[in-house]
What does this fold into?
Amino acid sequence: MVSKYSKKSSENLKIASERVDILFFQADEMFSENPELSDRYVSLARKIAMKFKIKLKSEYKRRFCKHCYKYLRPGVNARVRTQNGKVVYSCFSCKKFSRFPIKR
Ligand SMILES: [Zn+2]
It folds into this structure.
């Protein structure tokens, strides 16, 4: 038996974080066809994360520009390089940098 709807916040939280996963997945899928749609998915995912106070996974955080929130794809609309043990993304839209620790 599957209950149709639960008001329990933990259940909502689970659904919300699944939505975030799906949105980032779709942003990635859509990017080559329609990058504006990817931006929209990122913004939706951020809104959901904020509403439910979900911490975005670090792999998601580095997939969009933290200044203009555009979905970033290195080599297409962003450049990636390493500097002082950090990964630096430069966004081609707003020309700003986002720095992240290097992932191990
Ligand atoms: Zn930007």
